[in-house]
């Protein structure tokens, strides 16, 4: 008989401990689910989930934009070389120049001028892979080397 009473007392003590534990847990859950402004944890989680989805979409858009910009960047002018010179040693100053403009693949153009008292001549030469079909002057070669090194 004593064993039955002891078992009942142990069960009652266990029930009381569990009831107290449930009470404290329910209070913690209530605090967790209600914020300062009354918003619940569920609404916070849903809002953050929506924000994560928006960020994922933006990241995808940004990745595509970066690819587009990289493709355009390789075709943009990336190297510039300029050499000023005097083609006529006996007169004038360094009013003539050769300027080379090349992209990442060393494709581009060399523009050069020959300045004299009576006139200024301008020439354009196409550059493909760092080479020109027409023979370049020393100044144009220097400008092209500068552009390809930049």
Report on the structure:
- The protein is an alpha+beta fold and 150 residues long.
- It has two domains: 34 residues; 71 residues, no CATH class.
- It has three helices and four strands.
- A four-stranded antiparallel beta sheet has the order 1-2-3-4, with helices on one face.
- It is rod-shaped and about 130 Å long.
- The relative contact order is 0.10.
How is this fold's topology laid out?
Blueprint: H1 2-33, H2 41-74, E1 79-85, E2 96-102, E3 108-115, E4 120-127, H3 138-149
Antiparallel strand pairs: 1-2, 2-3, 3-4
Q: Give the proportion of residues in helices.
A: 40-55%
Unreliably modeled segments: none
Shape: rod-shaped
Strand-residue proportion: 15-25%
> Spatial order of the strands in the main sheet?
1-2-3-4
Cα Rg: 40 Å
Question: Could you write a compact summary of the structure shown?
Answer:
The protein is of the alpha+beta class. 52% of the residues lie in helices and 20% in strands.
């Amino acid at each position: 008989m004593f064993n039955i009473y002891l078992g009942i007392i142990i069960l009652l003590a266990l029930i009381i401990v569990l009831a107290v534990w449930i009470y404290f847990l329910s209070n913690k859950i209530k605090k967790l689910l209600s914020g300062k402004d009354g918003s619940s944890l569920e609404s916070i989680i849903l809002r953050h989930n929506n924000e994560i989805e928006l960020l994922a979409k933006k990241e995808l858009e940004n990745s595509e934009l970066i690819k587009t910009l990289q493709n355009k960047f390789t075709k943009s002018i990336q190297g510039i070389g300029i050499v000023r010179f005097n083609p006529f040693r006996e007169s004038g100053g360094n009013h003539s120049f050769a300027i080379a403009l090349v992209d990442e693949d060393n494709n581009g153009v060399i523009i050069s001028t020959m300045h004299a008292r009576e006139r200024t001549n301008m020439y354009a030469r196409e550059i493909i892979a760092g080479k020109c079909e027409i023979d370049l002057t020393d100044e144009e070669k220097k400008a092209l080397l500068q552009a390809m090194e930049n």
